[in-house]
Every structure is written in structure tokens, then in C-alpha cells.
Amino acid sequence: MLGIFGGSFNPVHTGHLLLAEYIREEFNLDKIIFIPAGNPPHKNISDLEQGEHRYNMVKLAIENNPGFGVSDIELKRKGISYTFETLAEISREYPDEKLFFICGSDSIIQFPTWREIGKIFDLADIIVAGRPNVSKDQLDNIIDEFRSRYNAGIVCSTAPHIEISSSEIRNRIKKGLSIRYMVPLSVAEYINANNLYREYSHGYY
């Protein structure tokens, strides 16, 4: 059973890693594959650090966890990357594996705006991680709708929400502030070595 964890990972941080590890154990997944976003339809690509850096940072962050992997399939795809295309490609690559798509409750309530959501539900079950800005009633209503309309397999994780965001990390770097414990040391060293996100010449780890 494979967990598919997509995101900008701009940069990957401790919150991402803790969530993935919690979900891997909670649902007894064999592996979770991190997929840095290529050209997502819901984000401005100019806001993303180039894909090679985001991929490399994820690779560094997960290198000591055999239960994690990383794929660059969206980064290699030309044009806008849609989730149903990514899941279809992974399904072809792992034809004998059951797929679980991991997303936040703030994402699943936006599914009606996503391309081919029926195909998403056909290709994978959904594991939903709670977000503080989405109420339980709002989440329950959208899940009920998807189960009724698409026969969707959706389960909710009890993983705790970690109050760390990539945007906060980028802002702290721009201000020359520490990101210690917010990202793995290897990621901080990579950011520093490649002069990412910063406006100042001094270090910040």
C-alpha cells in the first residue's frame, strides 16, 4: 500500500515529515512517496523555487527513512500537472499496489475545482489530514457528498497538526532569522549552500 504525498515542498519541513510518518504508521502503509509539484494549477509557478532544488531538499530530508521515497514525475511533466494524471502514472508504475492520496482538509474541500476528481477517486483512496481552518461539519459534509456521488474511499487521519509552514520558513530566511528545528539540518545546509530564499549574506540556521 503506497501513500502519495504531493505538495510544493518549498521547502520541505518538519511538519511534512512528522505528518507523513504518523500517517504511514496509522494506516500501515508500506511506503509514502513525496511528489514535489511541477506546475500546479492552483499555485503561481513563479512563487516556487525551481523544481530541482525542491526535489533535492526532499531527497535529503527523507534519506534515512526507508518508509519514504521521492518522485520527480511532476517535475518532468510539461505543462500544468494535474493530480489525476500523477495518480494514473503511479498506478501504471505500481500496478499491484493500492494507492492512498494524502491531502489536507483544506485541499479536499477544494476538490470540486480540481480536474477529473472522479478519476482521482477511482485511482486512490483519500487520507485526509485535519487543518485548523476547516470545521468538522464542513469536512464531514464534503466527504459525505463525495462518498455518495463518487463512491469515494475517504478516511480521516488523527495526525496532529504541526504549526509550521513553508511560507513562514521563507519569510524567516529573508529576515535572516533562524529556522533551526523547522527543517532537517541537511535541508538547512542545502538552503544555505545554494543561497535559497534569502536577501541577506549571513547564515540563519
A few lines on this structure:
This protein has helices spanning 14-26, 51-62, 73-76, 83-93, 105-108, 117-123, 136-150, 166-174, 185-193, and strands at 2-7, 31-36, 68-70, 99-104, 125-129, 154-156.
What is the fold-level CATH name, i.e. the topology?
Rossmann fold
Shape: globular
Distance between the termini: 36 Å
Q: Can you summarize the main beta sheet?
A: 6 strands, parallel
User: So how many helices?
Assistant: 9
Query: What is the helix/strand order?
Result: EHEHEHHEHHEHEHH
- How much of the sequence lies in strands comes to 5-15%
CATH superfamily: HUPs
Number of strands: 6
What would you note in describing this structure?
The protein is an alpha/beta fold and 205 residues long. The protein has one domain (2-161): Rossmann fold, CATH 3.40.50. Helix content is 41%, strand content 14%. The protein contains nine helices and six strands; from the N terminus they run E-H-E-H-E-H-H-E-H-H-E-H-E-H-H. The protein has helices spanning 14-26, 51-62, 73-76, 83-93, 105-108, 117-123, 136-150, 166-174, 185-193, and strands spanning 2-7, 31-36, 68-70, 99-104, 125-129, 154-156. It has a six-stranded parallel β-sheet. Helix 2 (51-62) packs antiparallel against helix 9 and helix 4 runs parallel beside helix 6. The longest helix has 15 residues, at 136-150. The protein is globular, with a radius of gyration of 17 Å. The protein starts with a strand and ends in a 12-residue tail after the last helix. The model has no long low-confidence stretch (mean pLDDT 91).
